[in-house]
Amino acid sequence: MRAFVISFLFALAGLGIFAPEARAAGASPKSAAEPQVLRVYNWEEYMSPDVLRRFEAKHGVRVELETYGSTEELVTNVETRPGRYDVIFPSSYTVAYLRSKGLLAPLEKRNIPNITNLDPRFRSPNYDPGSRYCVAYLWSKLVLGYNATKVARKPRSWTEMFEPQYAGRIALLTDSRESLGVVLLMMGYSPNTTDPTEIAKARDFLIARNRQVHAYADDSVERLLEEGTVDLVLGWEGDMASLSERRPDLRYVVPAEGSVFATDSLCIPKSSPNKLLAERFIDFILDAENGAQLSRELLYPTPNLAAQPLLPPAARARQIPSDDTNHRLFPLVDVGTTVLSLYDAAWERILEDHRSVRRPRK
Q1: Which residues contact 176 (CB under 8 A, 6 or more apart)?
Q2: What are the pLDDT digits (tens) for 299-348?
Q3: What's the angle, vertex CA 181, arms to CA 76 and CA 252, rounded to 5?
Q4: Residue 134 and residue 132: Cα distance in Å, rounded?
Q5: What is the domain class of 140-261+322-358 according to CATH?
Q6: What is the Cα–Cα distance from 32 to 55, expressed in whole angstroms?
Q7: Domains 5-139+263-317 and 140-261+322-358 belong to one CATH topology
Q8: How many CB atoms lie within 10 A of CB 357?
Q9: What is the rounded distance in angstroms from the CA atom of residue 362 to the CA atom of residue 117?
Q10: Domain covering 5-139+263-317 in this structure, CATH number
Q11: Domain residue ranges of the chain, discontinuous segments joined by +
């Protein structure tokens, strides 16, 4: 999906306070009338414009928000466009990959005092021990979204997506680890398997059912459900919760096999030209009021412990899964470059086959 840029501009006094940082990063000196620019690269519809405006006003800067629709798009652009971004929002397993490639800058915690607001459970994840490179932003789990007027009963299993009556009426995500992870769970395997045979079985399962899949969509599959193009989707709970508020007939469930969950993090690319300002932005996001606003607007659970008492009851209820759901949630973890290449190769085969079987006949 083509990324777009949203810019917010505030002409405020005292803009020269960040000039030393810019010179230290090798940037050309800025005049007193020219605001510093912070370039933020995030998922679509995953940030509050109001929070960005307040950050601009507080620091006398301009924020440029560019968005992406898949993990693959994020990784490709971070790797091929050094110096383009100051803050990025990778999912947990992607953090490990970017770290292994030396693409992330270590954080100066003294510039992020609000890091103490994080729930201790999120302060030292296995993909980034000690939160050395990133801090948790929001988290969520994958769910099965469905149109209750088209689906006769509440789905109990992921396999129901692939029943004959829904042929051509389902959508999965374009992210290989997420869609293949759910299929692996459905087949009784770990969503983090390193077994080439199990990965191949998940690949072949989807290839055999590609005619039933309307689309492998980016991070907006819920739009296909809302438009009536499909009846069942694989999507993130926050997006589906927002959709269900607008359309009570569009619901979601965690099927019996369980699901995967991921934490999205705030990270600074090693090539960022504005590292100090990026750290100030991360600290601003971790403020309790700002964390609560983000969770209220986006309907994703927040790892910000200080923000949680500021949330309405319905939002607080999403913070901690029930015991029944909790034991069925599995984190996506880094599987290493070699195994990741197996997932990538399997996914390319799936998408290539899907393009072939869904291509309109002349």
Answers
A1: 72, 343, 344, 346, 347
A2: 999 999 999 999 988 778 777 666 667 788 999 888 988 999 999 999 99
A3: 105
A4: 6
A5: alpha beta
A6: 19
A7: yes
A8: 12
A9: 59
A10: 3.40.190.10
A11: 5-139+263-317, 140-261+322-358
- What the block records as the tokens of 267 is 């990270």
255, 158 contact by CB (below 8 A): yes
Of the two residues 18 and 30, the one the predictor is more confident about is: 30
- The span from the CA of 283 to the CA of 136, in Å, is 11
Which residue has tokens 């739009």?
223
pLDDT, tens digit, 9 for 90 and up, residues 177-214: 999 999 999 999 999 999 999 999 999 999 999 999 99
Q: Count CB neighbours of 197 within 10 A.
A: 8
Tens-place pLDDT, residues 105-139:
999 999 999 999 999 999 999 999 999 999 999 99
The whole-model pTM stands at: 0.81
Positive or negative: CA dihedral 115, 260, 229, 66? positive
- 3-class state of residue 198 by DSSP: helix
Distance CA 324, CA 65 (A): 38
Q: Compute, in degrees rounded to 10, the torsion defined by CA atoms 325, 71, 226, 144.
A: -20
